[in-house]
């Protein structure tokens, strides 16, 4: 169903919990949806794939007055939905389905085009027990459809069937909207997710079942005056607001200067032409003759051709998460592991005894390095810490083998370090030194003849505080062959720095510095 791309981030996040939702209506005709946040020391793994693109996934507060493009002034035809921030890596807001409205939190995703939520008929997927479920029997406006539907994800597929009902977005009610009731949600991804479903804002060309997207119906039913929506993503994780999406207008308080607009070159995604990528102000060369790019609110990171990403990661000193963890394990605990092996400790229990793993060795170290890495990373729900567990287990196997050859301690440690250097990151994620951020170069994208800069603090995700802080590179490799590629996906890292306007009427995308 189109080209499939891969991009995932495996890193710990602080959960920000929807603790209170406030609805208010004022005389400007806008419904303000306030979301409060609460930090919880918990971890989660977000990895999702829409029907044609694998992506990562994605706290609102009081919403201010909006000013529309085109001097429309205050109007009932502008609607605002607050977005909640998942430590710079996920944004979601609330909608309603049915009459009376049943509430759901959804990712507002410009990289897909369907609306889906869990169904009350989802009986056998664990994820459904942790999220709100749509109950058609409780809605007076429900219309049966029943056509089967499936959307492919990295961990399998969400499957279900189409139904039709009214959908409430802010204070706007879309009538007779087709959506998917998901009856199957495989994998850990949806269990850990703090969102119930996804509301796609892409074009109908990539809609599963050719269902008319919610945004199309907002326009077709005359619910918005301007066929425009815009995103402001608050990258300040301490801020009260996670961000805002505005349907039918743009908040002038959320950007500085003027937007630079570029035409959509291929409908489906919000895809446009992009020019050179600069590293520290110098051309990377690869996109000098042009690349394509997608503005995607459902992706956390910046994905691009391996050729350029390699140059960027070299310039910022990024290394693979597994490789980095492996070297850390060897540096801090290499001698201890050797001593434990010489003391006849059970190899499979060493890593749990040291504290890297949370189990007692039942995980199959003897299965072989490659299979162990793959299985471990597929099973993980706590990527960086599980990478340390995996690295420890591999180090034990390697050291045990070298001890059989009667090598010295220094020889063993040097050999294992060399293997660590060669470890790939199966999911492509990389880490950088948090203390080096101030010395890292800027990375810039040329769009519509204008250069859009990203500073290190903007393209690096910092998780945790103090000595426990982890800094994750916001760049990940993605290779798409012509004519579709070379392709960049500009996710939340870019959209957080630059306020983004999706102009459906003029088939264009606009960027301006976020306020």
UniProtKB/TrEMBL annotation:
Q: Where is the Saposin B-type domain?
A: 321-361, 385-426
Active site residues per record: 109, 296
What name is this protein filed under?
Answer: Peptidase A1 domain-containing protein
A GO biological process of this protein is: lipid metabolic process
- Its source organism is Prunus armeniaca (Apricot)
- Indicate the family of this protein: Belongs to the peptidase A1 family.
Entry-linked Gene3D superfamilies: Acid Proteases (2.40.70.10), Saposin-like (1.10.225.10)
A Pfam family the protein falls into: SapB_1
